[in-house]
Structure formats: structure tokens, C-alpha cells
Here is the input.
Amino acid sequence: MAGEPQFVEHARDGDIHVLRIANPPVNTLRTEVRAGLLDGIQAATREGARAIVLMGSNRGFSAGAEMTEFGKPRKPPSLPEVFDAIEQSKVPVIAAIHGNALGGGLELALACHARVASPGAQLGLPEVKRGFVPGAGGTQRLPRLIGLEALRLIVSGESVTPEEAQRLGFVDAVLGGDLEHAAIAWARENAGTSFTLARNRTDRIAGYDAAQFDEAAKKLTARSRGQESPLGCVAAVRAAFTMPFEDGLNVEREQFTRLVQGEQSQALRHIFFGEREAQRIPDLPAEAKPLPVNRLVVIGGGTMGGGIAMSAANFGLPVTMVETSEEALQKGLKRCEANWERTVKSGRLSQAEYEKRRALLSGTTDFEKAVGEADLVIEAVFENMAVKKEVFARLDKAARPGVVLASNTSTLDIDEIASATQRPELVIGMHFFSPANVMRLLENVKGKASSPATIATATEVGKRIGKLPVLVGNCDGFVGNRMTGKRGPQIEKLLLEGCLPQDIDRVMEGYGMAMGPLATGDLAGLDIGAAVRKARGTVAPVADAVVAAGRLGQKTSKGYYDYDENRKRIPSKEVEQIILDLAEKMQVRRRKIEDGEILERVLLPMVNEGARILEEGIAYRPIDIDVIFVNGFGWPAFRGGPMFFADRIGLKAVRDKLAHYAETTNDPNLKPAALIERLAKEGGSFATLKGAAKG
Ligand code: NAI
Here is the structure.
């Protein structure tokens, strides 16, 4: 009809018909697309087509189901109805894939009679990463095409190239040149052959070996840390091997329905959309443009400087590492090389790509010369204010006017660092996380003078080198470290009242954390916290006693745990005795503490501090905090982050629990934050918090 958007375009090249999905930008399979496909197939059949080429317009084939239709009743036709029409069609339907064929998009292609693809396409079933399983036959059709390899693809959710897909057996041809043209030719040539639909194939699922399947499944789910969707995928794929097609579809449907409504899937979607939202800076004027950056200079080639330099080179940005001595410089460069070489050895990086990256990294001890050539400087020297100010004064003199000077400090005041320069508007924090070449999170820390262009530059460069930049305000510890710092006192109390380090870590790891807080302390080194406490004049009886016993963590092979030669942690008798002695001395009566209480007393202090951070405007939105924890602090994405955790409990309950623990543990820090009090009273939540929480 004239004037109405066409969601599926129908073209003809002689007796080969082309159906093009046209739902920009990524061709999600919304109702109109599904209806259009059904109509198109019927029309092509009526007109006597010999074959139908099904493809996507614009950027790709299809990114799958429309997420906004989730949880709402779907208007017909459903995807399975469309797939039935394809599978019953006498005219073969050939999927021609470019760009992304993901989720429901790939399932659509799998229902077709054959699949061709152009190089550079990405094919995958990422549903597991959103917390559910493919729900339109993907778990039944893919195993019938490629056997047990399907389990790996579906449980990992990773996509593959067309070449890999062809090797595995779910792409029939990889076609160079113009895809439409090539696919029409391919269709014309092959239209006469008899295609076997995926659902009718039995060769790849024959000879099902339960033991072999179990072993593969066990390996693939070993690191799911309590996430349910990988197990749902295993159950659905197993059905493909053990049941008739229709029964398998039912198993898949049950898993899909159960998981998609579950809390984990909601959490994963919360983070998925949140990661996009957190990169938008609400008060950044539209005219703020990032400054051009063609050379990065990193000051300091230590743990962090090396990782930052690698991140730049990994993403094609030329980078110079500056060190104080030739020896330190060589050490810094060698550490980067060794890291890349390990990746080459493991097969995840080609030698050619390594050499390309290595060529982008240079090093010098000539501070002034290097800084004079910089478009952006990131400082990563020792964490000491006097040292930082000296370095920034020197940077200010050596750098060209207008060049942004960033600091990777994890605790120091950005404004004070900026005060050492004549260009405070060009100073900003760029707080990377260790290992900096691996961790995605980048807390960009806005000083009171940081200009919009400076903020835009730090954001832009962060994205360019593969990071997820989240802009936060300047305060002690910024967002992430400030919040994790607040769980310390409760951990101390838990240890005295009845827990051992392994109890707390077991609960936190059972929740899904990559590593429990005490094991994390051992990894980072317990002397760091001890130095901070000394500087601040605070005490932590257990931690102090552990450090006093010479137990500094993994680097001394003992901390809260003992460590064997493989760095495997072993519960420590000595630490247990230290704790028991202290409890006795301090007259704390030890009792059995339930797991639920441990979890709450470790997490709620962080939630409370998160609320204060919102009140102060240090974070723009609750989602920013959740994104920070998932990407920088090993918080499992399927749990959605600390503020999501609080919302799940409900803020009334959070307020009551905080007030309860504040009183019973005599910890004024747990007195509910004003924002929590207010939202609890209003019946509100962090998710529905509108506008600024500040004030
Ligand atoms: P590091 O001690 O491994 O490296 C510091 C390097 O800076 C040393 O190699 C030193 O020779 C060099 N250096 C000192 N003064 C210099 C100067 N004037 N010019 C050039 N090079 C100089 O320290 P690390 O761990 O890399 O930390 C660096 C910064 O990153 C600190 O501000 C720290 O707080 C921050 N940070 C550290 C994290 C970590 O997990 N290690 C995480 C996030 C931030």
C-alpha cells in the first residue's frame, strides 16, 4: 500500500524471488516483519517462483526478536508459524546472510532450506547471555545440522564467522562480491537439487552418547557460577539428540518460558540496556566535541601503565610509554610483549596481529620530548599526591596547549592534581581497572573544572580502546572502590562473630561473584589496606592481626588463606586461631551465622553507600553503579548489580534491614541513607528513580 512502510520488500529476478527484511537499523523480527515474510512466501509461490532468496537490507540479516515485544502477548503470526510456512514451502527458501544473523535471526536462517553468507558476517545464538535459551527452534535445528558442536555454540552464546559456520556445517556456501547477486546465482544453480530441511536431518544426531554429551556439558557450564540459562540450553540441546523434533521443541519452549520471565534474565537485560545508557552523559552539551587523538602517551610503565598502553595498541592507537630509567622502560615493554606472546601461544592472536600491535607501541625516557608529541596523556605513576603533582606540573609545561592530561589515580583528589597545572579544565581522571588490557570498565572522573570537551575526549578515547566509560564525580574512591570499601567493617564483624574467611567467600562466590572479598584481598595484597588504615588512623582488628603475622596475601604465600605452589587457596589454621583469640580477647561470643545474613551484611553496606553516591550526584543514575560493578568488580551480570539487588529485595525491606544491622552491629555507617528512606516511604525503587537523586 502506498505510503505505508514495507517491512519486507519483494523483488524478482526472473523466476528467483528476493524477500528483503527492511526494519532498520538491525531488522528485528517484529510483527510486521513476520507477517510480511508469510505474505511474501505465499505471493512468490503463487507467482511460480523457482526459489526464494531471503535476506536483510541495510546492515545485516537480522539481529533477532524485538526485545520490546518481550513479556507482552505477541500478535500473530508467531515465528514458529513463519518457520512452518518456510518448511512446508515447495519453493526452496535460501537465506542469504550478511552482517549479523543473531538469535531469532539465525533461527530464521536455520529454518530455511539452505544458507549462504558473505565474508565478515556473524552468526550466533546469544540468548544464553540474555538469560534464556533460543526459543524458536534453534536448539533443535542446529544440532541436527552440526551435531555436538551445537552445544558449544548455544551454551557459550558466541558467534562464528561464515567460514567457521561452513566448516561446522550450517552454512552451505560463502559467497564473495555483491551478496544479492551471488545468492540469486547460487539459488538458480541449486534450485533443482533436493534440500533436506534441518528438522528432517538425523545423521548428525545419530549415535548420541550420553556420557560424551555430559562431559561436554560439564566443561561448558563449569564456570556459570549459578547462572541458570546455560543449564537450560543443555537441557534443550539434549532433547534434540534424544527426542523427536516436535517433542524437542516443547522442551525448548518450556525452558524459554521459564527463563525469560526469571529474575536472572531481567537482570541480564537490565545490564544489556544499562551499558548503553551509562555511556550517555546527560548534561554534556551537544556541541562538546572530543579533541582529535592520534598519539597517546602513558606516563609510567608499571602494572597499570603497561596495561593501558596495550589497550591502545590493541585498538590501533599509537602509544608511547614513558619511564624514569632505561631499565624500568625495558621491563615495562617486556611485560607487554610477554603478555601478547602468551595470547599468540594460546591461539587467540595471530603473529601478524601481534607484530602490528607491537609496532604501535614505543617507549622512551625522554619525558619532555614524548609529552610534547602527545594528543592525550594518561599518567600512571605511583599513588602519591606529591609525586602526582610534580608529574602534572611537568606535564603542563611539556604538553602542547589544549592537550588533555588524565590521571589513572584510584583514590586521589583530581582537583588537587589539576591544581598543579595551568590547565585544570583539561585535567580529568581516567580510572582503569587491573589488568587494564582486560577489564572493560573505565571510570572517568570529572573534576570541578573539567571541560565538556575534556569529558568528551576521555569518553571517546575510552570507547575507541575497547573500554566501557562511565563518568563519575570526584570523591574518595570514586564509585566502585568507595562502595566496596564500605563492606570492610561488616566483614571484620562477621569474622569476629562466627565466620571464617572461607565462609564469607563461599557465600559470595555462591552468589556468583568472580572471587570472594577475602580472596580478593589476598590477591591485591593486604599491605595496601593496612597502609590506608594507617594513613587514616583507623583499625581493623582481624586484618591488622593477619598483616602483623606477616601474612600479606598471595605474594607471601599466605594471607587470609594459605597458598600452595599452584596458588591454590587452603583454609588457614593460623588465621582461624588469630580470629578465635581476638574474639575471646574482645569478648565477642561466636555463633553460627546463616548464609543469608552473611550475604546481606556484605552487600547492604555497598547499597547504602551507592544511595549516598546518588544523593551527592557522584553517579548520574543507579544503572551507572550496576554497570560499574558488573564490568569492574566481578559482580555477575545475571545478578544485575548492587542497586538491582536492592530493588529485588524492595527498598522498604532494605531500609528495615539496614536499620536492624546498624543497631545490632553498632555500625552507624549502616544507618539508611536519606535516599533509601525517601524511596522506601514513597514506595519507589532505584529503577524508577526519575531525574537527579541529588538534593
Ligand atoms: P606501579 O608501581 O606498578 O607502576 C608505577 C610506574 O611508574 C613505575 O614503573 C615507575 O617507575 C613509574 N614512574 C614513577 N614516576 C614516574 C615518572 N615521573 N615518570 C615516568 N614514570 C614514572 O604502579 P601501578 O599499580 O601501575 O599504579 C599506577 C597508578 O595506577 C596508581 O595511581 C594507582 O593507584 C593506579 N591504579 C592501580 C591499580 C592496580 O590495581 N594496581 C588499579 C587502578 C589504578
In short: DSSP finds 30 helices and 18 strands in the chain. Residues 595-615 form the longest helix (21 residues).
